[in-house]
Design brief:
Number of domains: 4
Shape: elongated
Helix content: 40-55%
Largest sheet: 5 strands, mixed
Number of strands: 10
Strand content: 5-15%
Distance between the termini: 96 Å
CATH topology of the largest domain: Rossmann fold
CATH class of the largest domain: Alpha Beta
Structural class: alpha/beta
Order of helices and strands: HHEEHHEEEHEHEHHEHEHEHHHHHHHHH
Radius of gyration: 32 Å
CATH superfamily of the largest domain: P-loop containing nucleotide triphosphate hydrolases
């Protein structure tokens, strides 16, 4: 009895359905059609390359057993991909292959369809202040914007703590690409929104449409990729979309709150792909960069805030640019609404609402920590017996500042530096005074440290 390709495939579907959930069967096998059966080879048509990749990865064993059961040991399965480039083909060592055929229903010019980017126009390189903290990511982003998909930075993964400008940088790259290549399709999407798309597509049976949509993207920007954690199906689909875009020379930009090696709950194959290009970390900006950022964000309002107030804010808000901006907005609002003078006292009141703890008094320990940080030496060395010049200077300066800014006795100051007696403390203070009088560079260092003490602890 001669079997038709349709009847053979119906028999296969019956077996497959008994081994899968209804949702999996309806999502991945209902859209497949049989085309022909010749020379013991059943040819089926899948909607796109994504379907082929997904089925090969997740259901190859099921298909092999099914073909064996329906056609016997000589049975083979061939795929044809409905929507794809006619220049690519796939095969494996299991008697399963695919050959692309032209889709007669493709609308001419479909790939020129313009897609909404969802980029925020105000996030540009012009208002993204460069510093040591972000120079690598910013430079890579500028290179990408000149040649998206054509640099070694693909994918570009930008990571850093909350509020350091990851999203701003990602949008800046996207906006610059559109500025230089207005016909390209750039898409910005959060991982949460992407996951919701997947859920809706599975629920509504529109996975084909979603895959076609992503095939049109030239630059894909995905924010907060760490939220893929634990979402296995979303990871699988993203993996295949990632591969399609990568293989066709499209640009991928990702952001995360941690480096790839620290991403938990994400499959190793995805993490490996995240490492293919460049991983750029954004660090906390230094004092000078924070001040430049704040002045830029203030714009025309910068004249309303005394410079010492801006310095005070930047010295106390160290790790989060959003907080920096939030403090300044609150400061101006409080001054205008309550008719108060913009000064350090008001700034301190505002900052206390943003940070967990603001130092209210100066201690010897505070000063020692600040000086050790300035000289980049471990704080414990200030209490040691080492005679290394840098440590000795830091220790003497700490004693000098402690004498000037605290009410601690000479004995108490000495106790904080390895039990030095009061005569050693006096010697250290006098040494610093002599150096201030004779060494202009040292005098500048002392002035800088005094300013830091006052900015950090004084009202």
């Amino acid at each position: 009895m001669n079997q038709t390709h349709a009847s053979i495939w119906e028999s296969c579907l019956s077996i497959i359905k008994s081994n899968l959930t209804d949702k999996s069967f309806n999502t991945w096998f209902n859209p497949i059609k049989s085309i022909k059966f010749e020379n013991n080879i059943l040819t089926i048509q899948v909607p796109n390359r994504f379907f082929y990749d997904y089925i090969e990865e997740h259901y190859l064993g099921t298909l092999k057993k099914t073909i064996y059961q329906v056609l016997g040991p000589k049975g083979q399965l061939e795929y044809k991909i409905l929507v794809d480039s006619p220049t690519h083909s796939h095969s494996n060592d299991n008697g399963f292959s695919s050959k692309d055929i032209k889709n007669p229903f493709v609308i001419p010019g479909l790939k020129k369809t313009k897609i909404e980017s969802y980029l925020i126009p105000k996030y540009t390189f012009e208002n993204y202040i460069e510093g040591d903290c972000n120079r690598l990511g910013r430079s890579a982003g500028l290179s990408i914007s000149k040649k998206p998909g054509g640099t070694a930075f693909n994918p570009l993964l930008i990571y850093g703590d909350v509020g350091l400008g990851k999203t701003h940088l990602a949008h800046s790259i996207g906006n610059e690409i559109l500025k230089s290549f207005p016909n390209q399709n750039v898409l910005y999407i959060t991982t949460e929104a992407f996951t919701n798309q997947i859920v809706a597509a599975i629920k509504n049976g529109t996975m084909d449409d979603l895959i076609h949509y992503y095939q049109l993207i030239d630059t894909l920007i995905v924010d907060d990729i760490q939220f893929l954690s634990g979402r296995d199906k979303t990871q699988d689909i993203f993996f295949n979309i990632f591969n399609q875009l990568q293989q066709t020379g499209k640009q991928i930009i990702l952001t995360s709150d941690r480096p790839p090696k620290d991403l938990e709950g994400i499959k190793e194959r995805l993490i490996n792909r995240f490492k293919w290009g460049l991983t750029a970390d954004l660090k906390s900006p230094d004092f000078e960069t924070r001040l430049a950022i704040l002045e830029h964000k203030m714009g025309d309002d910068v004249s309303e805030v005394p410079h010492n107030v801006m310095e005070y804010i930047c010295f106390n808000i160290k790790n989060n640019i959003r907080e920096l901006e939030g403090v300044m907005i609150s400061l101006l609002a409080q001054a205008n609404l309550n008719n108060r003078k913009v000064d350090v006292e008001l700034a301190k009141e505002i900052i206390q609402k943003f940070v967990t703890q603001l130092n209210k008094s100066i201690t010897v320990e505070n000063i020692a920590s600040l000086v050790a940080e300035h000289f980049d030496v471990p704080i414990e060395t200030l209490s040691s017996k080492t005679r290394k010049r840098q440590v000795v200077i830091a220790r003497q300066l700490s004693m000098y500042l402690a004498k000037n800014y605290t009410k601690s006795s000479l004995k108490t100051i000495g106790d904080n530096f390895g039990g030095k007696d009061h005569s050693t403390v006096i010697y250290s203070i006098n040494t610093v005074r002599d150096l201030i009088d004779t060494d202009s560079l040292f005098k500048d260092t002392v002035a800088e440290l005094e300013k830091k003490v006052e900015l950090s602890f004084m009202t």
